[in-house]
From TrEMBL:
Belongs to the glycosyl hydrolase 3 family. It comes from the Bacteria. InterPro entries: Cellulose_deg_GH3, Fn3-like, GH, Glyco_hydro_3_C, Glyco_hydro_3_C_sf, Glyco_hydro_3_N, Glyco_hydro_3_N_sf, Ig-like_fold. This is Glycoside hydrolase family 3 C-terminal domain-containing protein. Residues 666-737 form the Fibronectin type III-like domain. Keywords: Hydrolase. PROSITE patterns: PROKAR_LIPOPROTEIN. It comes from Aestuariibaculum lutulentum. Transmembrane segments: none annotated. GO terms for molecular function: hydrolase activity.
Amino acid sequence: MKKIKVYITVMAVSVLALTSCKSKTTPLLGKSSIEDVIEAMTLEEKVALVVGTGLKFGDSIDKNSPFPIPNQPVPGSLAAKSKVYVSGAVGRTLEIPRLGVNTIEMVDGPAGVSFMSRSTAYPIGTALSSSWDVDLVHKIGECMGNETLEYGLDILLAPAINIHRNPLTGRNFEYFSEDPLLSGKMGAALVNGIQSQGAGTSLKHFVANNQETNRIEVDAIISERALREIYLKGFEIAIKESNPWTLMASYNSVNGNLATENYDLLTKVAREDWGYEGIIMSDWEAGKDPVKQMKTGLNLLMPGPYQDTVLLQAVKDKKLDEKVLDENISWILKGAMKVQKFKDYKYSNKPNLEENASIARSAAAQGMVLLKNENQALPLLDKGQNLALFGNGSYETIVGGSGSGFVMRAGPTVHIIEGLKNQNFNVSKSLEDTYTAYISENTPPTGMIDMTRGRKKRAPEMLLDEKLIQTMANESDLAIITIARISGETADRSIEGNFKLTEVELSNINNVSQAFHAKGKKVVVVLNIGGVIETASWKDLPDSILIAWQPGQEAGNSIADVLSGNVNPSGKLTASFPMKYEDEPSANNFPGTPADNPKHVIYEEGIYVGYRYYNTFGVETSYPFGFGLSYTNFSFGDLSLSSTEFKDELEASITVTNEGELSGKEVVQLYVSAPTGNLEKPVQELKAFAKTKNLAPKESQTITFKIDISSLTSFDAEESAWIAEAGQYIVKIGVSSEDIKAEKSFNLGKDRVVQKVNRALIPQVKINELSAKQ
Ligand code: BGC
């Protein structure tokens, strides 16, 4: 009996000792479980961790800043004490050294590491996607990821994959396409490239941030079907194919709820339907109610730090369950363990900028789109000819858009004139002198903030007088006219003078074309633009039109590569160019009502965005989605399908042959026409694409695509399900959405419910949606 008593006492003492021992050892992230680390946090630490530490750019910047920096932490607070490791980062999370919790430092943005003044400015998103080359985009991701990592940063706030719903959207340059498949595939390629280097990404802006006008207050009212098929689809693809470390919820509302306070969007769709496993965070200062944000599934409020007191009070008042905080923190901690600071990576501060510049140069050339090339005006094989360069953009070439997507680059910009000189072209010195003097006399001064956001003021385009044009037509062999545009965050573009060419630009194109053509000389227009512009009214005038986009810091070199034929253009449009703005399916509903300060915007065009609209309703375009010429030409063999009856999968193969004299690449686009059943369908939708290798003259390549059941589905809102309807499907191989080279059909025997999802994001307002049904 005594023995047993002693035994029990010894047991009790050891248990006691063990428990008190446990409470004495402080858990450490990575060594202990996430639950233990969270349990060891004080409530103050918890509320400070779910909000960022504010806009601390680093001592040298903050102290010397000539303007007040907002979002500063309260002196002495946890956020104020949390260290800044890399100056210039645009936000970071709290570090809690006693628990081994490291900070996560974040930097913009989609065209390279922003704010560093020592990184590479890559081509804009639209330029990258116009390559239709996922391997190339992956490669650019590797370069960006490596720069992020080697500068000691953790997350690059990219890619931005919103849909080009309307050509006026100021940030379309950052985005990839009007098509969700292309957007999703490009997004996944960039994320996979960046993350392969050990740096993280932020897929943004989730979702329907398709305009800048009143982006904070506007409510995007969209049908469930259009949301799932168009606006969410790209995010779904990118999340499933690349698992970005973070997902950024946008400023706007979607169907009545702010994106950052939207349970349906964040929890039901992203977490439950798609199984997203990363940090869901807000765009910078997005949203109103931190408590609601925490409850609806937003894990991290960026950039902070002011919401912590509200959250603390809410927990104390029992308005916010501490468990909700814990759940959000667990996502942040899982994310923190992925980053280099957790792994103690010794970054070099020396990424290979020279190599990256040359990769940026080649990528830009791959994304350029040749819209027109008559009389073999291009390529400029004879380098001895004298070139007359017109347009401010020939001398001040635009590298990228403005706002957070702007990159302060390491090297100087290579303007078009320099690129051409670098390849030994003769460019008119007198015209160069005229333009240089004009630009310097007519450029208004730019303030410091605008300078750091890429909003350098520019001289208005010079109206060319007849005498100057005549002299140039006599002295030169060929004219190049550059039309330049820049747009960016917080403002959409205007129709007059931006989407449309200005009177001055039109008159310059007209007069130069007339004078040069009268002498039997050719005219090339280079479009140094970030998005769709009006082309129908003037495209007949020049011999050639090349869209160079905003090609990054190597701009002039890349453009000269294409003009000279060093690179054969193979880019294709990722958005339709309409005949006129009014033809755009969203034209009547952009930017919403009231127009000067829209509170809501109704997406009445529904699923008929871009080519889905133009093709289905037979509306003529100036240049269709998928279009782009080459200096060579390609032929297509027969399309073969592995079966005429669909079971689980189908293969489609086609052979492409280079029939011309120059080597080149072609983009093979696979569209599917689905039968109309219960659900109406667009005439066709892009379901796959591939780019050939560089084919030598007479060389062929066979491209094989796999078509799975998900390529046949449409979203049935009533059933909340993706459904493939029975009937005849047509596979079409095209070189644009309006130029189909081969087609074959197959049959699906029975309707199939491919995936049931949560009923979510139901519009609260009746939408008078466009329909193709009579
Ligand atoms: C932009 C984001 C950006 C963030 C941080 C926001 O205004 O919308 O794209 O990543 O600022 O700079």
